[in-house]
Structure prediction request, 381 residues.
Amino acid sequence: MVCINTAMTDEQAHESPSEAQPASATGAAEEPPTVTDSAATKDTASDGASSDDGLVVRIQGLRKVFKSFSWQRERGVWRKLRRVLRGRVQEVVAVQNLDLDIRRGEVFGLLGPNGSGKSTTIKIMLGLVAPSAGEVEVLARSPHAVDVKHRIGFLPEESYLYRFLTADETLDFYGKLFDIPRQERRERANRLVELVGLEHARNRQLREYSKGMARRIGLAQALINDPDLVILDEPTTGLDPIGTTEMKRLIERLKGEGKTVLLCSHLLADVEEVCDRVAIMCDGELLAKGPLEELLSLRDQLEVRIDRADKAFQERLRRFLESEGAAVAAMQNASDSLARLFLRLIDERFPEKIPERVRGELMPAAPQSTPEQQEQAAPAP
Ligand SMILES: Nc1ncnc2c1ncn2[C@@H]1O[C@H](COP(=O)(O)OP(=O)(O)OP(=O)(O)O)[C@@H](O)[C@H]1O
Ligand SMILES: [Mg+2]
Prediction:
């Protein structure tokens, strides 16, 4: 298989039927329309959200400033007070001017480097941290409304679970907090333990769990109340590639059930695979937001994958493209993903370690043969 990346000339790009938008005055490629500036952030239409209908999260003008001062480190009340009065309390602006809409049924990725304000935004949505300014609505209510909390599942970046409880006891405990009847608690716990692949360890205390196992039970706990909005802060931290793949499939499954998922992750390839829309933050500011394919689209470049493309064919193709005036930026053999290679190797040696639901999806698809080739390959009658 060969993969060609062709940079078209401006003229060719604008001839393309998919280029409905007019070229910019400079003739350069159009900027993705969703990259925010102060005006664009105000315009919800810029990221495709044309109305407030179906919004699960609505954040406007959010700002959070932390006062950074360690009372414990200062000795004596007078010294502490003196420091406060002299304005020696350091301020950390964690989030500023943030506008965000998350729609029902979508998988939304909140991205950004360390310390960019993702977890703070999530904590404000959950009513765990008070905003300094701005409006936040979750499921059309204030984040402090108790009935809203019943409809949210949250996997924090670090799970604080009771170390001396087993997986079953943990799920039963959280199920009780949500007033789920006993029988249903059991059924949900069974389903979730299986879903996160912890059947073999369900009766072991969590203090004995590995990091990845702890992450899995944290996820099951986040889903025990069958939430409408699932917030996952770095869900794949500590998970092996099998667990990471299962997490992605689970997110897709939750979406299929009509749930809304907010995902924070540094694994951009995974985000790319599962998210419908993303927002990218840095130092508390929103840099860009919008549908993934719009943000990623290189409007004047074209990518083609061709099966059964031997060297001679590739050479002929390159000559043809160049004769048509195309600047061939890249032409190389397509490659498999590291995740697939990893899984294939484990599957060859330890097939029992790969759950059925993962194996089927991760093996590279065999190249599809054309009907003519199938005819040729068929034995003569
Ligand atoms: N309780 C707090 N007190 C003071 N500063 C805080 C507090 N919580 C967060 N901050 C600061 O707010 C900023 C944003 O932190 P936040 O945890 O939201 O980042 P993040 O995007 O989730 O980062 P990461 O990718 O590392 O999880 C950081 O500068 C952090 O130090
Ligand atoms: Mg964080």
Remarks:
- The CA atoms of residues 340 and 362 lie 6 Å apart.
- The longest strand covers residues 55-68.
- Confidence is low (pLDDT under 50) at residues 8-52.
- The pocket of adenosine-5'-triphosphate (ligand 1) is lined by residues 66, 68, 92, 94, 112, 114-120, 157 (CB under 6 Å).
